[in-house]
TrEMBL record:
InterPro entries from the UniProt entry: AB_hydrolase_fold (IPR029058), Fungal_lipase-type (IPR002921), Sec_MonoDiacylglyc_Lipase (IPR051218)
Domain named Fungal lipase-type: residues: 60-204
GO biological process per UniProt: lipid metabolic process
Protein name per the record: Lipase
Species: Vibrio hepatarius
Lineage: superkingdom: Bacteria
Length: 262
């Protein structure tokens, strides 16, 4: 597995953050004037952004996480559904399955009604893949989980079309069959930050497992593939001692910038 470089991490993190904005002006971030297509959810709100430039062989698919009350409730649909319609041999979280198969409301003059999020994304990406471009998927929270499934489905249909998958604060989305059949574990980077509780969800040990390479950003360091129980133990210990850590002189020194220079 190749390493994730700092400039790549920063680029994908910025794009994931911008995905929650109502408007993303892609030319400010090096993409072509016509280098953006928006995929709406069933309510006509942006869910996925496909970004590209004319002089780069990478197309970036950015997926935002739950962004309305109904989608938050879908996180509770923790039973699993098969993904045969995506060409995959494993089952995934039922709520995430629904998000992929929901109707996508048109956002472009060429869009038509009655198309799912999954199918609309394929339609947009196919011309780029035929041009020899490769696709990177990135997303935050449930958007990261959905991105993994979309990337794997695309790789299954168009081999070697996926460049990498980078997720931030992603919950688990499948179990043992996912681990066995997911094709992109060597290209998937799962970023976890400090004590992010969502990365431990769903709370069903054994039924839900993670895949890919985990990078845990914790206490000023990057830890690779730290087992869940160890990470949970360290997180719990940090929760217990955190109130006392604010008493250390290091904290007082670090906050010197609150004061004027003179």
């Amino acid at each position: 597995m190749k390493k994730l470089k700092r400039y790549q991490y920063e680029r994908y993190a910025v794009l994931c953050n911008l995905a929650y904005s109502r408007v993303l002006k892609q030319t400010r971030y090096g993409f072509a004037p016509n280098g953006q297509r928006v995929i709406n959810n069933r309510y006509g709100k942006p869910m996925i952004r496909v970004l590209w430039s004319n002089d780069n062989d990478e197309v970036i698919v950015v997926i935002k996480g739950s962004h309305n009350p109904v989608d938050w409730l879908l996180n509770l649909a923790m039973w699993q559904k098969k993904c045969h319609q995506f060409g995959l041999k494993y089952s995934i979280h039922a709520g995430f399955h629904y998000l992929l198969t929901q109707e996508s409301m048109p956002s472009h003059k060429s869009d038509r009604l009655g198309i799912s999020v999954y199918d609309r994304l394929q339609t947009i990406l196919l011309p780029h893949i035929e041009q020899g471009k490769r696709v990177t998927f990135t997303g935050h929270s449930s958007g990261g989980a959905i991105g993994c499934v979309l990337a794997d489905a695309l790789e299954n249909k168009y081999p070697k079309s996926i460049k990498r998958v980078v997720t931030f604060g992603q919950p688990a989305f499948g179990g043992f069959s996912l681990r066995k059949h997911y094709q992109l574990a060597h290209k998937t980077f799962r970023i976890c930050c400090d004590l992010d509780i969502v990365t431990f969800l769903p709370p069903l040990a054994g039924l839900y497992l993670h895949t890919g390479k985990m990078l845990w950003l914790y206490n000023g360091r990057i830890y690779e593939n730290t087992p869940t129980l160890i990470r949970l133990g360290r997180s719990f210990a940090s929760w217990l001692i955190r109130p006392f850590s604010y008493h250390l002189m290091e904290k007082y020194i670090r906050n010197k910038d609150f004061f004027d220079e003179r």
